[in-house]
Design goal:
The chain has about 100 residues and is mainly alpha-helical. The chain has helices at about 20-30, 45-60, 75-100. It contains three helices and no strands. The N and C termini lie far apart (about 60 Å). The relative contact order is 0.07. The model has no long low-confidence stretch (mean pLDDT about 85).
Length: about 100
């Protein structure tokens, strides 16, 4: 079976030059990366409501940041201290459990 590669850039907009109000709404919906089944046949007013709702969600940050900041590098000395503190805590727990008879 052959593979079909679909374009994913700005050129893949299904309505690059919208001729009607419906096509312009569908293009705006495509820009929000939303697939709405039956959008080509639904009423214009309902389509306007969906487009407006999706654009408001994006402006409010409902979907989160699509490009989060990368994690900051960890200071090696702090990392060693954290590991040392964790080892001390685990040793304390082992001694405590051994004293309580929970560990052989």
């Amino acid at each position: 079976m052959s593979r079909l590669y679909l374009p994913v850039g700005a050129q893949s907009n299904p309505y690059p030059n919208p001729q009607t109000e419906r096509e312009s709404l569908l293009a705006r919906l495509w820009e929000t990366k939303t697939l709405l089944p039956g959008s080509r046949t639904m009423e214009i007013q309902a389509l306007k409501d969906y487009v407006q709702a999706q654009e408001c969600k994006i402006q409010e940050g409902y979907y989160g940041n699509p490009n989060p900041e990368p994690p900051k590098p960890v200071d090696p000395d702090k990392h060693r201290q954290d590991i040392g503190a964790l080892k001390e805590y685990l040793a304390y727990r082992r001694r405590k459990e051994k004293a309580a008879g929970l560990r052989p």
